[in-house]
């Protein structure tokens, strides 16, 4: 399990002697073979700017820093949960890494391996299933069909400019498709990928939408996509703010669409802080809800999300209401090795899931500069189990909760329960 590193030109090497190290929280530790899988399709190797790789001499156990090279990490496709960050030391502690989810990578058995495990079927989110020439053809076709719809034009940039797969599905007319609706937000997330303060130290990798769609524009996108029983249309994308701030137009659009078709599912990706707005959206016919969270501990949650006029208890109330109304409710869990696997974090989140009717945990690797994140949250108070053991504990404690990585079509019993609630 040898160290992988890069030179200034981006050429990647494997070290002939030093073992690769991983990072859990702020600790550099040895990677075990049971924590490794081959580099998945769709993963990308990247160098970490201004970060020196750190390896271990297998004979002495000494940690060795390669000061003439750059550390290397892997960016994982959806469906894979990282177990460790790369082992590195920053040249300048004040420098911040771009907002990506870096995973430890080593050279093992003649190939690249990563410290990760598969948490879901990655087929639908493999970038190889989104060929560029096909994307360009479909975008042109849809824009020709809906030349005045600003949402489709916005999504075309997300598809061709940013390579967003959810936006791309809107044009491929399959699986889960994105429908951004909001330019404003009721949170100031530290790691927001669509809006950052000028003094944040790192630019947002995406541009947030800057207009309010009309109900007609939303209806057009929804009817365009909801053509099969398994189609999913999702409010709440990385290129927007909090969708529930636009509850008025969402609820109108949902009712108009459901008067014309019962096919597919309507989902919202939300922080769920605006409980009254969420209740209105649920009552208008919502099928699925994915709540973004990073912790069920107030101090940690507030440090990252920086909520405006809502609390974690509002999030819990929204989740409970949706679950009681038959909505298939999940959490979009932003996970970070050395934090997710803390004893107190696990106890709080397992309790939150049990009390609020969560049926699915969508594991998402947190895209953030690790050092900045660790500096802003409370330190560990109890045992840190390691990611692999923590995931096993979740499976044991929550046997009826699915652990995956993205939105699922709910089981038939949930679909029937929801139809009964809506009197459909």
From TrEMBL:
Pfam families: Radical_SAM. Its cofactor is [4Fe-4S] cluster. Residues 180-346 form the Radical SAM core domain. Coiled coil: none annotated. SUPFAM superfamilies: Radical SAM enzymes. GO terms for molecular function: 4 iron, 4 sulfur cluster binding; lyase activity; metal ion binding. Keywords: 4Fe-4S, Iron, Iron-sulfur, Lyase, Metal-binding, Pyruvate, S-adenosyl-L-methionine. InterPro entries: Aldolase_TIM, Organic_radical-activating, rSAM, rSAM_sf. This is Pyruvate-formate lyase-activating enzyme. The lineage of its organism: Bacteria, Bacillati, Bacillota, Bacilli, Bacillales.
